[in-house]
Design goal:
The structure is a single chain. The chain is mainly α. The chain has one domain. The chain is built from three helices and no strands. The chain is elongated and about 65 Å long.
């Protein structure tokens, strides 16, 4: 079961009134924004990791990898 915590954000009174007028739920908006930022940060992190291993992976030969996997399966 997930545990939740409260996060707050200050917005101008005008923005709050506009949210009400438009029938928008600030909680849902904040939750979605947080989830999107987490997704973006994870993507950036993954890209950085891929950049670090790319030179190593580029040295590997696909046919050798396939042959090693097949050989290992036969054991």
């Amino acid at each position: 079961m997930k545990r939740y915590t409260t996060v707050s954000a200050k917005i101008s009174e005008e923005e709050r009134e506009e949210l009400k007028k438009l029938g928008l739920n600030p909680t849902a908006i904040i939750r979605k924004a947080v989830q999107e930022e987490i997704r973006k940060a994870r993507t950036r992190d993954l890209i950085e990791k891929m950049k670090r291993v790319a030179p190593i992976i580029s040295k590997l030969k696909l046919d050798e990898i396939v042959s090693d996997i097949r050989e290992d399966r036969e054991r």
